[in-house]
Design a protein that fits this description.
The chain is an alpha+beta fold. The strands form four sheets. A six-stranded mixed β-sheet has the order 3-4-5-6-7-8, covered by helices on one side. It has a six-stranded mixed β-sheet with strand order 9-10-11-12-14-15. The protein has one domain: Ribonuclease Z/Hydroxyacylglutathione hydrolase-like (Metallo-beta-lactamase, Chain A), CATH 3.60.15.
């Protein structure tokens, strides 16, 4: 059932563009023969969630394709050998037919720079009608605070810590906050040297959600099961009882609280829906 989201902010009600999340995503098998390489879910006719199959790559990342009047934006390009471009351009063609209009140019951006989110980059680089933004500090600095897609604005929040070029994107139309690998139902990996930056980014996200309407918080993985405090081991392909993709404003505040109360020497901290995994410094070679 579609729903209308009304949020009270400063004493007034503002309507967000409605949409629908699935009850669950099929991560993979148990039999990979009948599992498609990609699962595509239309949150609404202008916002698409793509999930790479675990049968293609165990990371099973989520990608997001968002349409404005003038541009479409793709966040992340997939893991391993995923054929991301054909799937994305096929969706753009279908969207244009649905809207009875011409296709729009594509902006490609990244939640951060790790390989399970950038492996499909070469499929988009150098193509006509594609503006490719690499996952580099310079490119992120040049982005500015927002991206205009034509009647749709995405706020850009640099949130280093998990990775030095991690960002969050906030879609003003739907109230969806995309948090990459910095917050999702699973293991939030942070190098111990980068924990102060991660904690500062968690505080930034908490401040943001206190002043903005948040319908859903969507990250780029699911590693948690639907049992609190229980996650799937790294490398798991089939996750039959996984956590829902969507987190909430409360989870953002919970992350901030966990970071603020972390011991002086940061440590692994398990919470019901995610775990902060502080990685020790690597020994010198």
């Amino acid at each position: 059932m579609r729903f209308l989201i009304l949020v009270l902010l400063a004493g007034s009600a503002f309507a967000l563009e409605p949409g629908k999340l699935p009850q669950a995503f099929r991560a993979s098998g148990p039999n990979c023969v009948d599992v498609p390489d990609w699962q595509v879910h239309a949150y609404n006719e202008d916002f698409y969630i793509l999930r790479e199959s675990g049968c293609t790559n165990y990371e099973k990342p989520f990608l997001y394709l968002i349409f404005g009047n003038d541009f479409a934006l793709l966040e992340d390009t997939g893991a391993g050998n995923a054929q991301t471009a054909p799937q994305v351009f096929g969706l753009i063609e279908k969207w244009a037919k649905l809207k009875k209009r011409a296709t729009v140019p594509l902006i490609v951006i990244h939640s951060h720079g790790h390989g399970d989110h950038t492996s499909g980059d070469k499929q988009f680089q150098g193509l006509p009608n594609v503006k490719f933004i690499p996952a580099t500090p310079t490119a992120i600095a040049e982005l500015g605070p927002e991206i205009e897609l034509g009647g749709r604005v995405l706020d850009v929040l640099p949130i280093p810590g998990h990775n030095n070029v991690s960002i969050a994107l906030y879609d003003r139309k739907t109230g969806i906050l995309l948090t990459g690998d910095s917050l999702y139902p699973g293991r939030l990996y942070v190098p111990i040297a980068d924990f102060p930056a991660f904690a500062a980014s968690a505080a930034k996200l908490a401040a943001f959600v206190k002043t903005h309407q948040i319908a859903h918080v969507l990250g780029t993985h699911i590693e948690q099961s639907d049992t609190p405090y229980v996650d799937y081991p790294t490398g798991t392909v089939h996750q039959p009882s996984e956590h829902s993709l969507a987190l909430t404003r409360a989870h953002v505040l919970e992350l901030d609280e966990a970071c603020r109360t972390m011991p002086a020497t940061p440590q692994i901290t398990a919470l019901p829906d995610f775990t902060i995994v502080v990685r020790p410094a690597r020994p010198p070679r």
